[in-house]
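Hi there, hope your week has been kind to you so far. Thanks so much in advance, here it is.
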Amino acid sequence: MTETADGALQQRKPTQVARNPEPLAKTVRVWLYLYLATSMLVVVSTAVSLALATSLPPETPVSFSEPTPGLELGDFLVGVSSVLFTFVYLVAGFLTLKWIFRVSRNAHVLASGLTVRPPWAVGWYFVPFANLLMPFRALREAWQASENPQAWRSVPVPSLLRWWWGFWLVENTLGSMSFRLGLRADTLGETAATQMVEIVSGLSDIPLVLALVRIVTRLSAMQQASLQRETFA
């Protein structure tokens, strides 16, 4: 039983709201690996395009509407890989956010006093500036509540979560930088600088995805174990 703000007792019924995160976690891991594979495909395609560009003068003008002579192969590879990457990115992103919502909701079944509600565990990702901290807090609380529902505030934050969020901030910073550089790129030299940032950004996906896969695996297993052994009265 839990006590509400007005002193009334409310029965907790976790079986009505909690769901096993493991099946969804398996699907999320598959799509995260697909995301990583397509991200590396974009990196390779961009590297090929960059290598081809070295044979041309850096002051060569470029245009989004017309292919640059000598770079047709590179542009084709980047275009195809980018379309594939975008599709996988959208699916993987949707499934990952769905998993975050589920583990957050389960965490609220296990423990009381959590500060980030399940809808906002997802919603904060789309709020500028707040997305620098609040998504991390939501997943941190889900982890703590899953490890020790009765005393979740005393659970130390694992370094795995900190590394994941650090990689997330780095990848998003590099992605934003390459986007801004790309908008201003009028010559082949400026485009080459943008591509180098894009390659580094893509490579940063490796530790980011591997850390997230580990989090999905460990948190899902830990949460399901807590849900199975927790006694709700």
Strands lie at 2-3, 9-10.
